[in-house]
Amino acid sequence: MMKLAEPLDLFLARAGKDDRLLPTHMSLFMAILYHSNGVFSSRPFRITRRKLMLYSRIKSKGTYHKCLRELVGYGYVTYQPSFDPIKASTMTIILDET
Length: 98
What we know:
By secondary structure, the protein is α+β, with helices and mostly antiparallel strands. It has one domain (about 5-95): Orthogonal Bundle (Arc Repressor Mutant, subunit A). It has four helices and three strands; from the N terminus they run ααβααββ. The protein has helices at about 5-15, 25-35, 50-55, 60-75; strands at about 45, 75-80, 90-95. It has a three-stranded antiparallel beta sheet. A hairpin with an 8-residue loop joins strand 2 and strand 3. The longest helix has 13 residues, at about 25-35. It is globular.
């Protein structure tokens, strides 16, 4: 299992050069990283919006969805919604150094 510091270093090195990212993107990505349970690089894991909003401190569903959509579009994560209230959505963290 990869230590949390390694993916965090990769993310911060990439994010530091990306002028598109705002504090809300950074906060949401940190919450995603925290809840990934050490599952990095092309291995999907399950996560709920409720947990991500709680840990990222994002209060608005609109802001959450906008930031998540942009993180997907910018190539930081992949996201597959479940649309099932019992089953969590699937996410993958992309750790390449682009």
